[in-house]
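ok here's the first one, seq then struct tokens
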Amino acid sequence: MSEEKTAVQRLEEEGDIAADYLEGLLDIADLDGDIEIGVENERAALVIEGGDLAHLVGKNGEVLEAIQELTRLAVQTTTGERSRLMLDIEGYRADKRSALTKLAEEIADEVKSKGKPIKLSPMNAFERKVIHDTIQKTGLSSESEGEDPDRCVVVMPA
């Protein structure tokens, strides 16, 4: 039990370090935003909301991904350990997760009815994870193939 508590405490510390870094970034850019810190799926999770932050998401979440990587590096520099924190801005990832879950459920139905594998378009690691998690819940299997940035998910019949 104490090991689990220390893991949660470590993730909360990661979240605090990340929030300090992001607050500095928002200050430099003269942007307003509220930062919420939590722990989700055994990783620190931060959400920035408020103000006009859409440009921090960028086209297809590219700017969000870059800010997330910089924030992970800032945490790693402070703690000496690799961070897997997730960052969301203005609900972009939450909306994306919902859309991907729906897509995965539709693909699962199609694979079940046709009995043939379906290869999806290339996706980033976050998107692939949502697809894999959803497909697993349907009783089917999936795997990633290819190399980034062309890595994609293939959904297979049971």
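and now the second one, same deal
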Amino acid sequence: MSVHFLLHTPLAHMTGLLLLAAALGGLIGWERERHDHPAGLRTHILVCVGAALITLVDKNSPGVGGRIAAQIVTGVGFLGAGTIIRAGQGLAVRGLTTAASVWAIAGVGIAVGYGGLSAQVAAVATLIILFTLTTVNHFEDALLRRRRRQKLSVIFAAACDPLANVQRILEMLKAREIKARDFQMQKMGDSEVARFWLHLPHEVSRDTVDQLLSGNKDIVHYDWDE
């Protein structure tokens, strides 16, 4: 049996597709791993190879007609949900992008499993996914930077210590990774007004800050300046 024959057997062809799936899954997984996301290198490789394997078996099983491969999307959806976590007393949700990358890499695995042109499209899709994860966020930050910079005015009761309250607010904001770029104090009658310039992370909304301030009895009123 010649080496040339072995390289062109169905087993060799399927092995090549599984190795391609491992490489493509590893490429996305490495990007997630570098940034310490919940699903990293091993998870993406296993999902991509598993999806390719199931598709290969499905494609080569008479009478199945794609029914096995169709279950991959549902199964990976539950796996992706496991990468979504809540941070800071449930006020912020993290891991949605990683969950989406796990789901997308399963699609890459399915395409690889079908082989031929689909496998080539899978390689192109992987590059698009990688570009989205590594580059699009920089454009997103640039486009949303001004919108995410919010001005907040807080009026404190006359009998309270405004500086102590400001310090408490800054500590709470820092715990939620909300950056206060600057603040100013101004007298208004018997009360003090503090104005904050906040930079909200993408996963944090004004509602998060509202919840932080609502429990402070020394705050008479607060308002977001448009």
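notes on #2: The first strand starts at residue 85 and ends at 87. Strands lie at 85-87, 92-94, 149-156, 179-188, 191-199, 219-225.
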